[in-house]
Amino acid sequence: MGDDAVAACCETARDGRYSGERERALDRLNDLYVDATDANRERILRTLSTVAQDAMRSTERQTARETLVDLTADSPRAAATVETLRAIATGDRRGRDRLDALNALARVADETADPGVRESVRDALTEVATGATRRRERERAQDLLHTLDAGGTPSSSGSESGADAYLAQSLAEHLAAAADDGRSSARERAGELREFVAEHPVEDGAYADVLDDLASLDSQLAALSDAPMDEDRRRRIRAVADRVVRLYRRADADI
Asked: Which residues contact 241 (CB under 8 A, 6 or more apart)?
């Protein structure tokens, strides 16, 4: 397919004056891709990535996102698609797009044969599961991680896969790092970890003690001033984080 035709279609999909012509150009890119040269395929994918992230109309973003996954999920170009979807899933606007991007990431993981791409999807889902401000997005990412760890079959509870151990470690690492950032940051991360542990119980004799440790830590941090914490306090915060990691590792090993 000629370079000029691809270039013109890409330009229209991005910058066309009317929504109808932009949408027709997006559909046309899907057809052009089949016979395009490698260079033109890259151009098409870059255009779809741009539209998926930046288009003003939600229908155009959705079409571009779905076409991008259709064309690349089972190809060597899947890694770049994962990065586009990750940028959408962790963006600061368009909540509906963030949720749809999470589902698209799961589809890529299901269709790809590349372990590295699956690991990139896992990293992206973990970032949302541990850092998203909206509970709905965190829970959706956690559910998809469970599915990914179960090889495509959703687990019936958090403790039936390695996903909880993975998430607990990520949240605990955030808490340990926050110990050096000050009371406010540490308390915020402690609250996130406490909420996660409370919502993901495990059959372990230390579970209740760990939950109590997190509640006590939250109370202690609430009573502190915003002055820098001393090393003893930071060490205790890291010790609580470590107990959480070891708790979920034991639960994972017992499965």
From this structure: 172, 173, 175, 176, 193
Domain range for residue 197? 161-253
Q: Are 226 and 182 in contact (CB under 8 A)?
A: yes
Q: How far apart are CA 72 and CA 230, in angstroms?
A: 51
Nearest in space to 176 (alpha carbons), one of 194, 190, 164: 190
Residues 6+ apart with CB under 8 A from 213: 240, 243
CATH number of the domain that residue 194 is part of: 1.20.120
The 10s digit of each residue's pLDDT in 117-171 is 999 999 999 999 988 888 888 888 988 998 887 765 333 333 344 677 878 888 8
pTM of the model: 0.68
Overall residue count recorded for the chain in this entry: 255
Residues 6+ apart with CB under 8 A from 255: 159, 160, 161, 162
Continuous segment of H or E residues that includes residue 36:
none
- pLDDT tens sequence across 209-231: 999 999 999 999 988 877 788 89
The string of DSSP codes covering 146-200 is HHHHTTSS--SSGGGSTHHHHHHHHHHHHHHHHTTT-HHHHHHHHHHHHHHHHHS
Spatial neighbors of 9 by CB under 8 A, at least 6 apart, are 25, 28, 29, 32
Asked if 131 and 79 sit in the same domain, the reply is yes
The total number of structural domains that make up the chain? 3
